[in-house]
Amino acid sequence: RYISIFKPSIKDNMQKNKTAMKTMGPPKVEVPSPKNFLKKHSKEKTLPPKKKFYWNEPKKPPVPLRTDIPVMGIQSEKNFININAADIIMGVAKKPKPIYVDKRTGDKHDLETSGLFPKYINKKDYGVIPEYICKRNEEVKKAQEEYNNYIQENLKKAAMKRLSDEEREAVLQGLKKNWEEVHKEFQSLSVFIDSIPKKIHKQKLEEEMKQLEHDIDVIEKHKIIYIANK
């Protein structure tokens, strides 16, 4: 049976979360000290300390004077026309976005998210069995081989013999033939069972038929049958 390797860590996390969120019973918190009693105006908000205001403090940078000359004459030697033309010529053309139209009014929709575009079947790992399934199949196969070897060893120790298909079919046909004979004898009983020997004989036939039916059912259900060599 497959068991995840993350089971212990998930179990520990769940246990930690459960312990942290427990609310049954009184909360285990520190009892407040009687010395720290509530004082008057202790819940009121305190304002920050006042700062002295100076009217002469500048709030914005000063306005440039008339005598200040701005920097002029700076020019770039970059030819934007040629550079833009080269970028367009050497650049890769943009592909149009795939869309589909499903109405006569011309409503457009994205094709990739619609499910009509074969997106996932083009992946490299499409249709490949995941690694964890392969590993689990190998573990199951190995466990089955170990179980078969264990059964074979036990059968050898107990001197068990496996019935072949021909022997199994012969036993099955023999049981069915015996059931037909007992059933024929049961059908030939008298209608009135008015004596103790007749009742005992009827019960015996019914038990034999019931046992034969059980044996036939067991052999038909199980294809492999082992018998002990006494």
TrEMBL record:
Keywords: Cell projection, Cytoplasm, Cytoskeleton. Pfam families: Enkurin. It is found in: Cytoplasm, Cytoskeleton, Cilium axoneme. InterPro entries: Enkurin_dom, Enkurin_domain-protein. GO terms for molecular function: calmodulin binding. Residues 135-227 form the Enkurin domain. PROSITE patterns: ENKURIN. Its main location: cytoplasm. Residues 15-43 are annotated as: Disordered. GO terms for cellular component: acrosomal vesicle; axonemal microtubule. Signal peptide: none annotated. It comes from the Eukaryota. This is ENKUR protein. It comes from Crocuta crocuta (Spotted hyena). The gene is Enkur.
